[in-house]
Amino acid sequence: MVDSRTDLAVSLDAEEEILPFIPILLQDLWSLGFSPDLALTILKRNFPATPRRVLDLGCGKGALLIHVAEQLGWNCRGIDIVPAFIAEANRIAQDRRLTNLVQFEVQDMVDEVEMNRQYDLIVFGFDSESLGPLTEALSRIRKRLTTQGHLLLNTIWAQPGRSQGEIATETDTLSAAKDAGLYLVDREILDRSLVEAQNASNTELIRRRALELAEKFPAHAAAFHAYVQTQEEESRMLSEDVQCACLLFST
Ligand SMILES: C[S@@+](CC[C@H](N)C(=O)[O-])C[C@H]1O[C@@H](n2cnc3c(N)ncnc32)[C@H](O)[C@@H]1O
After folding, report:
1. So where are the chain's domains?
2. Which end of the chain has a smaller Cβ tally under 10 Å, C or N?
3. Cα 133 off chain centre by
4. Alpha-carbon span 173 to 245, nearest angstrom
């Protein structure tokens, strides 16, 4: 039985105790995962400007889909399990007059992949096992793709030549995709110095909110402090131990 709360905590690198405070801790950030720039580069490079139906599983505050709708004019659906993220995504879509192209909804991705809808492109960040280990997650997602559909996968793998305990290697990742019936079409590796700079700036914004919250809710002060430390460790790991990969697969 999948425990969504635990998976959500893993996905957000947070203790369950502070999950209710996550929207406040992350309130100064729009993009909560990889920066949308590389995903947009890959999409523009590989697809003509035909309208497509896109689904983002775990869209956060909708940073990628808002850009996709604005720049490519595709029809987008974003789902996320955190209502505050979806509220913010909808607010931004309304501000930018994009509600005809983008719909955001509170939904668990576990339920979403069981729905009988098909998409030309699905975006998925593999940061927890909500949908199971990678091959299983990709197989479940693949069922929602049209015959010539594509998957855009954001993931990390160990730096080449450096064993990183439980972190998958590039070979593990590509063979998991192949086992799920997905074939690599294009890829980008995020620039290490950009990852470092982006994470340093995000961690600083989070640290300020954590200090404010620790004053307001002293009973959780240790958990807020631990969250900032986890962010620092995560930032170090992302820029030193692993590569952040944005991969486009076809069915
Ligand atoms: C690392 S964040 C990335 C968010 C977004 N893709 C972005 O780049 O800004 C992971 C997202 O997955 C969402 N999430 C985690 N588990 C989920 C689930 N079971 N169903 C839907 N969303 C989930 C989290 O709430 C969070 O917004």
Report:
1. 31-99+115-192+235-250
2. N
3. 16
4. 10
Tell me if 71 sits within 8 A of 98, measured CB to CB. no
Centre of ligand 1 from the C-alpha of residue 116, in Å: 21
Residue 40 has which token pair?
């947009």
Query: Which among 80, 114, 115, 246 is the best mutation to test ligand 1's pocket, defined by most ligand atoms within 8 Å of the CB?
Result: 80
Nearest CA to ligand 1 atom 8: 33
The identity of residue 168, as a single letter, is A
Instruction: Kindly state the tokens that stand for 219.
Output: 């009973």
Distance from Cα 156 to the centre of ligand 1, integer Å: 15
- Which amino acid is present at 162? R
Q: How many angstroms is it from 39 CA to the middle of ligand 1?
A: 16
- Distance between CA atoms of 174 and 128, rounded to whole angstroms? 18
179-196 pLDDT per residue, tens: 999 999 999 999 999 999
Q: What CATH number does the domain located at 31-99+115-192+235-250 have?
A: 3.40.50.150
Ligand 1 probe mutation, 1, 3, 4, 8, most atoms within 8 A of CB: 8
| Distance from Cα 60 to the centre of ligand 1, integer Å | 5
Express each pLDDT in 99-152 by its tens digit: 999 999 999 999 999 998 999 999 999 988 999 999 999 999 999 999 989 999
Q: Output the pTM of the full model.
A: 0.94
Q: How close is the Cα of 21 to the center of ligand 1, in Å?
A: 15
